[in-house]
Write a structure and sequence with these properties.
Length: about 325
């Protein structure tokens, strides 16, 4: 089947309902610009960093196809046979923006558009959406355009702006996360450092004894884990009666303490909305945890050489047990 028809060789094009008009007419210019917008959104969909954003852009592309069909149909009575833009489509954009903005930090100063490539693509799409809207408003002075289309198009540019901000913010968090990970992965490349000789089996046994004794005083059963400076898991002890979930959680607390070089209970404020490490847990797929029970382990010189994680009791008890253990068992 040939894609070319030769019917447009004289500068006219066919509308959906059969009429022919000049290719430069405002109606054609308008739905042609929305077609251009759809192409930009298709490009954005290839770069967004979440499946949710990708799915949402696919839905917008589908809606724009229906919108173009409406605009390319001159007779209103024939538009009834199409899938039309509805109020629910408008609401979908509004609800998505409201949800997203609640999770983004407030803007307190002028920001440059597009700090990462996908956000730049989204801002280009946003400006095309605004241009298409200007043409649509002008066309509305000549023909009847549905209220729903006018509202949808007006919301669409705002939505693309919001998604661009969300992608920029996600990229910022990813970079911060990478910096945290680099704190210990770079250490692995230092061949003159022996991360395993810092610890002894006697140290682990003493630490486990204090953890167990302190936990029993709290009427709790816990699991403890120790990692070295490179984040490698070295030692694990589970008290009788400790929950199975505490095994993985203790390891993550120990890992987080060395990766961030902070007690894990100090991270809770850093991951709140508008804080520097907001959504850190989500973007590290749960490898970093932000509740108490993980502490860095220091040597006599004050250097961080590992991390201790305690889990299985309440958060307050986990913190207290870990603190008592490290205060009583010193590195020799």
């Amino acid at each position: 089947m040939r894609i070319y028809t030769k019917t447009g060789d004289k500068g006219t094009t066919s509308l959906f309902d059969g009429g022919r008009v000049k290719k430069y007419e405002l109606r054609v210019e308008t739905y042609g610009t929305f077609d251009e917008l759809n192409a930009h959104i298709s490009l954005c969909a290839k770069y967004v960093t979440s499946e949710e954003n990708k799915d949402f852009l696919a839905k917008i592309q589908e809606t724009l196809f229906h919108l173009c069909a409406e605009l390319a149909t001159e007779h209103i009575d024939k538009q009834a046979s199409f899938t039309r833009v509805t109020e629910s489509d408008v609401k979908l954009l509004e609800e998505a923006m409201d949800k997203c903005l609640k999770e983004l930090p407030d803007i307190k100063q002028f920001i440059l558009l597009g700090e990462c490539p996908v956000a730049s693509h989204l801002h280009v799409a946003r400006t095309v959406a605004r241009r298409a809207e200007r043409l649509l408003v002008k066309l509305n002075e000549e023909v009847v355009i549905s209220t729903e289309i006018l509202q949808y198009v007006n919301r669409l540019s705002d939505f693309l702006y919001t998604m661009a901000r969300e992608e920029d913010f996600r990229n910022e968090i990813i970079q911060l996360t990478q910096e945290i990970i680099n704190r210990y992965t770079n250490e692995v490349n230092k061949k003159d450092v022996d991360y395993f000789s810092c610890f002894s089996l006697d140290y682990f046994h003493e630490l486990a004894k204090v953890v167990e004794a302190t936990a029993k005083q709290e009427n709790a059963a816990v699991t403890m884990s120790v990692v070295n400076k490179a984040g490698h898991h070295l030692f694990h002890y589970q008290m009788e009666g400790a929950l199975l979930v505490s095994i993985d959680m203790a390891k993550k607390k120990a890992f987080t303490a060395i990766a961030t070089q902070l007690p894990t209970h100090h991270l809770s404020e850093l991951v709140q909305p508008n804080a520097p490490w907001y959504q850190l847990e989500t973007l590290t797929n749960g490898e970093i945890v932000t509740f108490g029970g993980g502490l860095p382990i220091y040597n006599d010189a004050g250097d961080i050489i590992g991390g201790l994680g305690v889990s299985g009791a309440t958060i307050e008890q986990d913190i207290a047990i870990a603190e008592v253990a490290l205060s009583k068992v010193k590195m020799r």
